[in-house]
Amino acid sequence: MVSASTDRTNYLSLALDTRKTIKALGQWLQTGAESPEVRQALEDTVESLRALSSGGSLFARLHADSSYESYEQIRTLQEVQLTMKDEHLADRLSAVGASPDPVERNRNIEWAITFFAALENQALQRYNRSAGSAFGH
Amino acid sequence: MAALSEQVRHDAASLYQFVCSIVDLCESRNPAAAYLSSSERFFDYLVELGSATKEYVQNFPGGRTRPAEYLDLRDEVAVLRAGWQFLHAFVRPALESDTLHLPSALVQGLIRRFREIPRYSKTDFVIFHTDEFNYLTVRSSPLKKNADGIASLVHGPNFPEQLGLIGIPYSQSSSLFMNCLIPHEMGHYVFADAALGKKFRAEVEQQLVNSLGSQFPLLDRVRYTEVLAKWSEELFCDVFAVRLAGFSYSLAFVELFDFSKALDEDGKLSTHRSQSFARFDEYPADLFRVKQQAAVLVKDRWWPELVKVDSHYVKLLQAAEQMQNTDFEFPIAHQVDPAKILAAFFAVVPQVFSELDAVTVGLAPGFDAWRRTSTNVETYLEHGVVPSSLLEKKGELNFVRPDLVGLLNSSYKFYVESLDRLIAHIKDAEASDVSTRSTWAGKVQTWTTKAIEDVSLLQGKETI
């Protein structure tokens, strides 16, 4: 494997994106209204998790501002997936908001917040511990 | 232990203090120093984003009462702090780069040339100093994304549109020729702005699947996709720089890394001496990069004139231009066949050129202007005259103003080919003396820089 230097800014981008998603999920809980941004974030996460499992093409499927464009970001997602030991992560995320029952829907949103909080923490931890630079030659 | 609400308030105050320390630096910058307007924009933006951040965290924890909410705020403080640590890295280098410490005339000339591309007619660049002896660009995509990420959390302003950041070695502010590498860094801005990264990643991934099959593990594929996309970006920036600045970029590229040492005593590529330059690693092989630059020089009509230049730098360009894809290697200690990886990359190289043509639509080629003034500029330099207004004797006497591309390429050609002619006019100066050559090469750069500045004033264009 060629040694490509780690770009820690990718971890920070993931942490910031994830924080936005957590806030949007919190708003969803409070208001009951789902934003297009949170739906997009859920779909991109599901797409990336499924690509991790199936080995299918990834980059052509992601939308322009996806949070999972780099090796660091995909690897962080995989680390969280392994930590959560849930084989059906993608399916569960995909189902967030689908239930007509408000109680179940809120429970699913809260679970999604837990998932994204784990992702945010992992990304931030990686960012703070990695050597690297924002500069590219 | 203090209550959770107090702990959060403490964390917020700590972040507030950190943001203040950055904002204060920007606000109290040296009043005696003058900055490019692009730098002023950057500092003003940081001050505004800092104010928004401070205002946002000032009332933490606000009306929250539940432990989960306090803990969530603590997470938010941590993310914001990391974001500001990221921005912190850019402040001091930009503050130290006032106009006295920058090659301002060249930078302004290059920005004007860049703005000749219609879609970039309003783009600006912050130039800052780096300790490394390398030219670099701040990848505008993650910078903007991360800065906007902070902004969206604190309801602050987005990163200024059409603003790029470029780093140059702190010691090279007076080196005209080395600064011909700046257009490569402008290429990185274009690559991000035109969202070429996403395009190339998708294309590269598809080529890797074609070459290696879909069973290639996703994480490995993502890793190689990034490597190949990065090669594509570097190539794009090289060919963009050549289109913007002509062969002066290629000569600077060869000079900076001493690539001409790949040649043997007959001026041919030596297998032994060129081996390391034909190897792909984190970056594309150096000779492959030179070969692609030569392809643009051919396409943009520089090549037939360039090959007449008597210089070992040009010999290197000619030798690289003749190389075949099979002359390059990618040594990797992995179960993947490196030839297949390279094949996937070579398949996307044509797209680099089509993207170059697409983004430079409307940019006038520099070749004709250079050919019209080159002989005259070189004659002026030979006699130690600043080549700002060139006397042309075609019927009536006329003064002709060379443009930036004409000046850079004429001057670089004179430097690599004809420095002896200048030194021959100098009393007691020996062309064989290294120190003397260095001194007069510096003079050539000073006169050319002055000409760039004069031409800019004579053209009456706005000062950037």
The N- and C-terminal alpha carbons of chain B lie at a distance of: 56 Å
Number of domains of chain B: 3
Question: Radius of gyration of chain B in whole Å, from Cα?
Answer: 25 Å
Strand content of chain B: 5-15%
Count of alpha and pi helical runs of chain B: 18
Q: How many β-strand runs of chain A?
A: 1
| Major sheet characteristics of chain B | 3 strands, mixed
* Main sheet characteristics of chain A: none
The number of helices of chain A is: 5
Shape of chain A: globular
Secondary-structure-based class of chain B equals: mainly alpha
Can you tell me the number of structural domains of chain A?
Answer: 1
- Mean pLDDT across residues of chain B: 91
**Strand sequence of the main sheet of chain B, in spatial order?**
1-3-2
Count of DSSP strands of chain B: 5
Structural write-up:
The complex is a heterodimer of chains A (137) and B (464). Chain A is built from five helices and one strand; from the N terminus they run αααααβ. Chain A is mostly helical and 137 residues long. Chain A has one domain. In chain A, α2 packs across α3. The longest helix of chain A is centred in the C-terminal third of the chain and has 28 residues. Chain B folds into three domains: 188 residues, no CATH class; 166 residues, no CATH class; 92 residues, no CATH class. In chain B, the strands form two sheets. Chain B has a three-stranded mixed β-sheet. Chain B has a two-stranded antiparallel sheet with strand order 4-5. In chain B, β4 and β5 form a beta hairpin. In chain B, 47% of the residues are buried. β1 of chain A pairs antiparallel with β2 of chain B.
